[in-house]
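User: Just a sanity check before I run the rest of the batch. Below are the structure tokens for the first item. I only need the designed sequence back.
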């Protein structure tokens, strides 16, 4: 039986490129074939794994330029039944795709909100006249191009090759080291061995008052655990109430990690341990090579 992985589609998204890169390693480690399944949104991809329709889901969680992907965090908290199997960092290089011959002719630019934000300075300097419109994915943005020379889309150069579209400008992201961290998620009842050096937790506080957040942070300090990330999200219950996502540089399997997590239960309202995992770096060029070697048609029509 193949291992199935859900991701944000359609074909040509960065999530698919990340899923392809991860599948290369997974096939080598397990000897199993991997089957990718595109879903129309991040929550639906995560729900597919929660419902047992796929073995794994790969979703973006954090970008080095724009920070956390809030949809991923909110859905993970809502489902509360997915664990992090691996984390993967992949370089992100955006291109401006358009049939226009002159950037001055462009009036509208489509892309995913994260991509638009990651290219904000470039867009302000090079296309100040253009209106920016958000889409559900960088590939969905390509549907608006057709043969209209006043329209552009921000997407990967791999997607440009996949759909045979012209690239007007290369590497337009504002920072050269732009990269995105993806989480590979599994259902909590999936029997896949997990180990690693990182642990991710989320918790809400029993009261919204002075020192409420300080108590959990003191636990980490007391056990000498470094936080590589902390991010707050509204609880959606009341204005001013937040829950917190933290990434710890420790394994929950160690005595130190176990004791710290146990102590956290005394100063939090709800505490969820999303698991311990390792972090790997993806090579998108290898993933693109794999895609070409498989059934992806570089001149296929847009969905």
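Assistant: Here's the designed sequence for the first item:
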């Amino acid at each position: 039986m193949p291992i199935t992985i859900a991701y944000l589609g359609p074909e040509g998204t960065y999530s698919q490129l990340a899923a392809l890169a991860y599948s290369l390693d997974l096939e080598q480690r397990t000897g199993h074939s991997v089957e990718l399944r595109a879903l129309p949104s991040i929550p639906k991809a995560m729900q597919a794994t929660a419902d047992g329709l796929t073995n794994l889901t790969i979703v973006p969680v954090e970008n080095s330029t724009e920070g956390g992907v809030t949809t991923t965090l909110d859905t993970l908290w809502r489902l509360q039944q997915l664990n992090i199997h691996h984390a993967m960092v992949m370089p992100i290089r955006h291109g401006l795709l358009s049939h226009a011959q002159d950037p001055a002719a462009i009036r509208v630019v489509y892309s995913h909100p994260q991509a638009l934000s990651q290219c904000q300075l470039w867009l302000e300097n090079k296309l100040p006249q253009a209106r920016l419109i958000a889409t559900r994915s960088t590939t969905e943005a390509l549907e608006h191009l057709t043969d209209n020379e006043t329209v552009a889309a921000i997407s990967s150069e791999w997607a440009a090759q996949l759909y045979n579209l012209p690239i007007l400008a290369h590497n337009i992201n504002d920072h050269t080291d732009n990269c995105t961290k993806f989480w590979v998620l599994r259902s909590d009842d999936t029997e896949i061995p997990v180990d690693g050096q990182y642990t991710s937790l989320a918790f809400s506080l029993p009261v919204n008052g002075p020192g409420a957040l300080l108590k959990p942070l003191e636990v980490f300090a007391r056990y000498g655990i470094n936080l590589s990330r902390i991010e707050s999200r509204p609880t959606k219950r009341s204005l001013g109430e937040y829950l917190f996502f933290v990434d710890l540089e420790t394994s929950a399997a160690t005595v130190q990690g176990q004791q710290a997590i146990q102590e956290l239960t005394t100063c939090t309202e709800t505490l969820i341990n999303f698991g311990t995992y390792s972090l790997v770096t993806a090579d998108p060029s290898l993933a693109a090579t794999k895609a070409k070697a498989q059934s992806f048609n570089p001149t296929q029509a847009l969905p």
